[in-house]
Write a structure and sequence with these properties.
- The structure is a single chain.
- The protein folds into two domains: about 70 residues, lambda repressor-like DNA-binding domains (434 Repressor (Amino-terminal Domain)), CATH 1.10.260.40; about 45 residues, no CATH class.
- Helices cover about 75% and strands about 0% of the residues.
- It is built from nine helices and no strands.
- The longest helix is centred in the C-terminal third of the chain and has 16 residues.
- GO terms for molecular function: DNA binding.
- This is DNA-binding protein.
């Protein structure tokens, strides 16, 4: 069974975010201001769960990787993806989405219907969403 401790979850997200940005451990450590050799070692230690990260460095890593701090601490991949999606929304969209998620969870029939819509090809999704919007 995979380790789901906060440290292991952070390590997995750090690796994922670093690779998504195309950065080596050395490059990321250097951007943190630690120098190439010391920085590479520090990032390696975070990723291999040898060293815990402090809040200041956590915030700096998130900024350098252009992800929210919450992404680096997400419990699983789906939550991490949702956090990234919310981070890309503007403030008004986030407010709507924050209200929408609990509403979807309270209506057991609605969530599977929307999930089915996401299984459609993109062109059909667009039409189905437009049809939903036009019903108002």
């Amino acid at each position: 069974m995979p380790d789901s401790s906060p440290r292991s979850l952070f390590a997995a997200r750090l690796i994922q975010a670093r690779q998504l940005r195309g950065l080596s451990q050395r490059a990321l450590g250097d951007r943190m201001g630690l120098g190439k050799d010391k920085g590479s070692s520090r990032i390696n230690r975070y990723e291999h769960q040898v060293t815990a990260i402090g809040f200041d460095n956590l915030g700096l890593l998130a900024q350098l990787l252009d992800v929210p701090v919450a992404y680096l601490l997400a419990d699983d991949a789906a939550m991490a993806d949702a956090i990234l999606a919310l981070a890309q929304a503007d403030e008004g969209q986030r407010d709507v989405l924050a209200a929408l998620i609990p509403a979807l969870l309270q209506d057991p029939a609605l969530l599977p219907k929307l999930a089915q819509l996401l299984q459609l090809p993109k062109r059909d999704q667009t039409k189905a969403l437009k049809d939903l919007a036009d019903k108002d």
